[in-house]
Each structure stands twice: as structure tokens, then as C-alpha cells.
Fold:
Amino acid sequence: DTGVSQNPRHKITKRGQNVTFRCDPISEHNRLYWYRQTLGQGPEFLTYFQNEAQLEKSRLLSDRFSAERPKGSFSTLEIQRTEQGDSAMYLCASSFGFMNTEAFFGQGTRLTVV
Amino acid sequence: AQTVTQSQPEMSVQEAETVTLSCTYDTSESNYYLFWYKQPPSRQMILVIRQEAYKQQNATENRFSVNFQKAAKSFSLKISDSQLGDTAMYFCAFEETSGSRLTFGEGTQLTVNP
Structure:
């Protein structure tokens, strides 16, 4: 197991286009998190899953954002009608257990909206 | 809502010396978890050290130790015998015992000079 994997690593898209990112967590990790990180800032929580259930969503996650985790395995984060303000690094993390265990992060997907 | 503040955007230290990174937080919770994460350039975030609020003893991991002052809501990270590989962005993070999300500070960019 090589850790949390995110694809693509970089994405450049035109404003108004839809984009989808994928996260493959560490095997058997039941929790999966999405964060957004803008340049020079700490990551901000977007949403998290416990198995296939999406248990919490941040108010940062507008209607244009949707996340899924079918069958409790990989997860996708889709942004519809991208805006320049969506440009950021999108980080995925996973953990095993039900609370307060170490979260392992992927290398992120850097989105640039032009 | 919890907030985490790192008041030092940048710090530098000479190799082999000791450096302390500051972090303060605000919460009404009595039990929670605190973390320091390290984010090297273009690499994924990794956990450096973690502290459980109900434990009075400060956590230590090899060259890394914390000074946890619960009453003052302060959680500083001390790095001893600094190495070039310690150069990274360091984030302080807070997590409620429910374990649903990490709240990060703005980060401190640490540079270790030879």
C-alpha cells in the first residue's frame, strides 16, 4: 500500500467547465476527508465520509460541489461550472477507526481555473 | 467554532539548533486533540506529533516535543537538533473528540539553514 493516492495531480480548466477529482484512500481506512488549501493558507475542511455515508459537509461546499464515495472505497469530488475562486489545492485524507486517529494525506490535486 | 492561530508566518533556524513554533487555539470544549503536521515542498502532509487534551504530560517524538498549556490554550512545537529535512510548512491543527474534522492554523514556513 503506497498511501493515499489522488488523481490528477494537476488540472487546468476553463471557467465554466466541470472537473472531477479522484481519491483512493489507504485500504481498509473507513474515513475519508476532503480539504481545500489555497496558497499560503492552512487546509479548510470540505466534507468527510465514514464508509459510504457522507456525514458532514462544510458551508464551503456550495451547490456546485458534490462528493461521493461509492461502496466505501475511492471517492470523487466534482466541481460544476468552475469559477476562478475555485483555484486551489484539493487534499484528500483517510483514517482508520471512528475518532481521533491519525489522518494520512494524499499529495493533492492542484486546480487552476483560467 | 474552533479557531487555530499561528502568529509566525516564517521562521528560520541554523542546522543543529533548536526552534519553537507557536500555536494558540480557541474552543469551549474540555476534551480534544491537537496536532502538528508538516508539509514539505510538493509533498504530502504528514503527522509530526499529537497531544490529547486530557493528558497533562507533553507529547514527545524523538527530536519533536510540545509545550501544551491547556489553560492558556497554547500548543507550541519544539524542534531540537534541526536538520535540513525539517524545512517545510508546519501546521497546527485541532480536532474535537467526535473526530469529524481537523481545523488548521495558517501555517509557519520553517527554513533550516546549513
Q: What stands out?
A: The longest strand of chain A covers residues 88-95. The interface with chain B takes residues 3-4, 31, 33, 35, 40-45, 48, 55-56, 58, 91, 93, 98-103, 105-108 of chain A (CB under 8 Å). The CA atoms of residues 36 and 44 of chain A lie 5 Å apart. The mean pLDDT of chain A is 93.
